[in-house]
Amino acid sequence: PWDELILLSIEMKEYTYEDPAGRSKIVLILLTCLAVLNLVAAYSSYLEYQLLDSIRGGMEISSEVADASDSRQGLIGITQTVLYLVTTVFFARWILRISRNAHSVAPLSQRYTPGWAIGYFFIPIVCLWRPYQALRDAYESFLDLSRDGKDNVIFPLWWFAWIVSNILGRLLLQSTMEAEELDEMMHASLITVGSDSFDIFLNIIAIFMVTMVTRSCISHHNNQQGEPMLSGG
Hints:
233 residues; 7 helices
């Protein structure tokens, strides 16, 4: 019954192709900025760890130095949060465009509607696999039969990195909230370094994934129209 409802909803609404290049470029710029910021954040957290280690070793640290470190960490954290939220919004808009284009090409091969391709990210448990399935379905609908792109490692690598990043984020939040003693704060700083460093890897993989899917989408459309592929997608 659930599959029948999905098919019925697909049949009731028709989608038309829209060029995803504009949204893709914005997402790629934001992901690049996020990667650079995560690199800065990881280095800043390492400096904080060194400062805490110096305090544990008996070195006297002035209140000005401690306040400067706290202010730097706070500013970077706020900037990361804002940039992450902005990136999430534009990434969702890109997914929506890609999913709608896939529905315009091969609606019956799409297991989820464009709205649910985004909505499943916010539903516990099913968020672990259905957003991946929705975007993977869309990507595969753009592939030519002669192209062996279904075994591409980028997709599972991106999704693995996304899940691990979320786990590290939860560990970081918990360790930061519970950190009261010096050793606990040092432990939280190390987790922050690890989390930010891994997020750089996630950002890079996401850049490759967005580029790959966008180019496949544009290439498929141009082939259908009998036009050459646009460079830079």
